[in-house]
Amino acid sequence: MRRKKSSVCNAGTEDIHYLCALKIKTVMQTSSRPIIEIKNVSKYFGEKTALDQVNLYVRKGEFLTILGPSGCGKTTLLRLLAGFQTASEGEIYIGGNEVTQTPPYRRPINTVFQKYALFPHLNVYDNIAFGLKLKKMPRADMERKVKAALRMVGMTDYEYRDVDSLSGGQQQRVAIARAIVNEPEVLLLDEPLAALDLKMRKDMQMELKEMHRRLGITFVYVTHDQEEALTLSDTIVVMSEGRIQQIGTPTDIYNEPVNSFVADFIGESNILNGTMVCDRLVRFCGHEFECVDEGFGEEAPVDVVIRPEDLYIFPVSDKAQLKGVVQSCIFKGVHYEMAVAVDDYEFIVQDYHAFEAGMEVGLLVKPDDIHIMKKERLCNTFEAKIADETHVEFLGCTFECLPSAIPASLQSGQEVKVEVDFDKVVLQDNEEDGMLTGEVKFILYKGNHYHLTVLSDWDENVYVDTNDVWDDGDRVGITIPPEAIRVCM
User: Fold this and answer.
1) Distances in Å between the alpha carbon of 430 and those of 436, 438, 449?
2) Of these four, 6, 71, 82, 285, which has the most CB atoms within 10 Å of its CB?
């Protein structure tokens, strides 16, 4: 249950960089100089943008997690920090010193990889001591440091064991010991638990958290596992498509997501189209609900987020705000998860009591548990050029439009903007049937339809509302009918 409203609850895409800068400024004002400063960093691989103007500050001793789906740029950012890759633009500082072009071995950083990269021909002791031997450290000092590192990771009886004889969790501890024995200022961890089974992963999460507390050094952790990020972190950085979407504590990120991507990616959410009637009153699913949000204006389109655990479910009665029928009921170990159909909408509800499929139920949500977000966009908007009186060029194609769509004052070759409603874009299974092609990159269920992000082959996103079911990565044809195109200056 949400207890307080964040000042960023009505942020849209255009506000995100300002909010990140505000977070950075707050860190700078409330602590000494951060140990890591990433300023306006971009990374390009040919024409592909892996990181786009990233700004991030990490405090000394902080456990910071970079979270996002595959391909969002999180590992690229970690590799730039480690020095394994070089930023195309921007600057990186560690401990107040610029290290943008500094090679890895000269940075006060060690990295623990997903594949632990242990030397199979060396035992545990020699794996941990490898870096110290390269520094030609005296044997007595080296032995003292290795044994201290072994104690730190709970492996004191394993120093002469072959690494191949260890379990995955033990190998991970050895990899961490090898990293911390060099006493780095920063420890980078690139999905180090991904290869472990579920129980061992959860055990190692607790050990990592305790290890961070004992060591007192800065951890920068990369993962795509939302639960892992919420469990381990002091601060979470959520990334998508090479950009930072939100920076905050686990509580802030979960309770006050700034946009629909964060709300959908962190935990489970019911995300619906709504209308802010006025301050503290929102309309969705054909009903009006009291909420605690203000400042969105009147009759303003918004996104409404309700977490499944914040919906109260009970046998249908007059006190119900919404009435529906249970479609499915699944036991999840701690709670039951139910899909409830309310008219044309479907809600996911989590409760300790089971309501079986077919039962009529009532739903209720308290004002504090309704989270309102400013819509990131109201329609597709493309940069375009007038071709002639019935055609416009955008997305690398020439599209026909209605003659009435182009004002008579506009001339051929003139640059304009084109607007297309989400539900007017048509997707086809066969790529050749489309006017252009693309790939489904993100799928958001909005209660009674899907909102898709399709990356066109022109490297520009097309947003689509549809009732058809598509999968991430599907190749599609994209058609925009003439009547869907609006031309504006």
Assistant:
1) 11, 11, 22
2) 285
Query: What's the chain's average pLDDT?
Result: 89
User: Distance (Å, rounded) from C-alpha 113 to C-alpha 249?
Assistant: 25
Structure tokens at 474: 């599907």
Containing 45, the helix (H) or strand (E) segment is strand 36-45
Q: Are 28 and 219 in contact (CB under 8 A)?
A: no
Taking phi first (over 0 means left), then psi (-120 to 50 degrees means alpha), and beta for anything else, what does residue 83 get? Answer: left
Q: Is the dihedral of CA 340, 345, 346, 347 positive or negative?
A: negative
Asked if 193 and 182 touch (Cβ cutoff 8 Å), the reply is no
State pLDDT tens for residues 14-30: 444 434 444 444 444 44
Identify the bridge partners of residue 54 per DSSP, sorted by sequence position: 41
Torsion angle (degrees, nearest 10) of CA 378, 256, 365, 352: 130
Q: Helices marked H in 236-395 — which ranges?
A: 250-255, 260-265
Q: In degrees to the nearest 10, what's the CA dihedral of 254, 189, 219, 197?
A: 60
Per-residue pLDDT, averaged over 455-469, amounts to 94
Q: 95-105: string of b/e by CB count within 10 Å (b at 16+)? A: beeebbeeeee
Distances (CA, A) of 121 to 124, 160, 170, 386, 475: 10, 12, 17, 67, 46
The whole-angstrom separation of Cα 235 and Cα 41 is 20
Phi and psi torsions of 346, nearest 5°: -125, 130
Judge if pTM exceeds 0.90. no
Q: Which helix (H) or strand (E) holds 214?
A: helix 198-215
Distances (CA, A) of 332 to 202, 225, 267, 353, 359: 17, 18, 14, 12, 19
Q: Is the pLDDT of residue 13 over 80?
A: no
Q: Which of 488, 378, 471 is nearest to 423 (CA)?
A: 378
Task: Give the C-alpha separation, 430 to 432, whole Å.
Answer: 5
pLDDT interval class at 455 (50, 70, 90): very high
CB 404 within 8 A of CB 389: no
